[in-house]
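Q: Two folds, back to back.
A: First:
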Amino acid sequence: MTYEFKVVAVGGTFDRFHAGHRRLLETAFQVGEKVLVGLTSDELVRALGKPHPVDPYAERERALRGFLKQRGLMERAEVVPLYDAYGLTTTDPSIEALIVTSKTAPAVDEINATRTSRGIRPLKPVMVAHVLAEDLKPISSTRIRAGEIDTEGRALRRSEPALPA
């Protein structure tokens, strides 16, 4: 099979592994022969100040690797811990593209400015649309942890209509 890129990168916290994570990774493996998967370290999670608890790195890595093994993708993947927001993307000249969502796309400009200043070819962003839940809002770990939706985007609690006063 021929891929658009030899090496691509994708990163995330991958907490409460969900349908959005699957789409992000599936896209990475569709366009890249080798995929560097940056997984947010526990230290970086703390520094990011997430508004909710996040599973420990080992648990998130287990879920991520389980998905990759189930899909037969481990031989094309390299899972690396992220200790800062950009990981290897600012220093590794073999990386050709970065898989992003509308939320993470702005980082590409900063990454490319750093790469260019180091004499490294800029990354091509590959945009992935958010997977929407039943309520047409993006699936996110935050919403899953809040009990609004499950990992497939199905509503877990329905808001009751207000009773007339």
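A: Second:
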Amino acid sequence: MAEVDIDRLIWIVVGVQLTAELGDRPLAYQIEQRLRDRLAAAPKSEDARPALSPAVISDVYYLNSEQAQTRPVISIGGPGVNALSGQLVNELPSVIAIEDTLVVQMDLALADMRVAIWGMNHVQTVRAVELFVDKGYLERWVEGVIAHRSE
């Protein structure tokens, strides 16, 4: 099997609990496809592969890999089902917050390339993902990731 080039990856992290696997992983695959579509228009690397590529992984893998933690990441699912979101809840500012309902957290200055998207239940997490995309935060974040890669 070919070596995985971690420096090209953008992580989308979901929890390993059954509710996260059943509810949040499909949302992560939707974000992954949106990222693939957006990155297809970005400049290619010297070997003609996209310079960046999204990958859906578990919170357990991410939190146990120092190398993975050096890459941009979107965490989907609340602190109760996603340990990365549990870590980020006190580390990132909220850009969308509906009390007792949903949260989208990210650094709008894009100095920190981590994002957390979650709701108090699955339906609210779906809504949080929709707001992240519809309000332009995903596009803004991707632009920041691409710009950071070019530096």
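Q: And?
A: The two ends are 31 Å apart (CA to CA).
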